[in-house]
Amino acid sequence: MAISTPLVVIAFFVVFPSMVLAKQYVVGDDEGWDGNVDYQAWADDKTFKLGDVLIFKYDAGSHNVAQAFNADGYDSCTSSPELGVYTSGNDALTFNLVGSYYFLCDYHCDSDQQKVMINIVT
């Protein structure tokens, strides 16, 4: 018995809705992750959902993307390397869990407040 194409498409949307509906966001839009943007203001007018992708674009070697464990680490610009430190200059991070995520640049968090907190919702 052959399965019809419409049925397969419907099944895909039901089984993988976050993949189908996921959005990609370039952090800082055209400015990227270079420290000259109010990243929290950038994030505050967006709703980030499961499956969404954040893309951090920056000059590798001049910046990085590091995660802080919690709000205290974020506020004090203390990263948690075990959670991830990215250095490629074009880092794409996909969110598969609901919660708060804290990102900062180890080189410029203290001096330029280069950091952003992202809330992922369902």
In words, what does this structure look like?
The radius of gyration is 17 Å and the shape is globular. 25% of the residues lie in helices and 28% in strands. The chain is of the alpha/beta class. The strands form two sheets. A five-stranded mixed beta sheet has the order 2-8-7-4-5. It has a three-stranded mixed beta sheet with strand order 1-3-6, with no helix packed on it. It has five helices and eight strands; from the N terminus they run ααβαβββαβββαβ. The N and C termini lie far apart (36 Å).
**Major sheet strand order:** 2-8-7-4-5
- What is the count of DSSP helices, taking H or I runs of 4+ residues? 5
Radius of gyration: 17 Å
Derived structural class: alpha/beta
- Strand portion, in percent? 25-35%
Arithmetic mean pLDDT: 89
Low-confidence stretches: 5-15
Euclidean distance between termini CA atoms: 36 Å
Summary of the model, kept short:
With 122 residues, this protein is of the alpha/beta class. It has helices at residues 5-15, 17-21, 39-44, 71-75, 109-112; strands at residues 24-26, 48-49, 53-57, 65-68, 85-86, 90-94, 99-104, 115-121. The protein is globular.
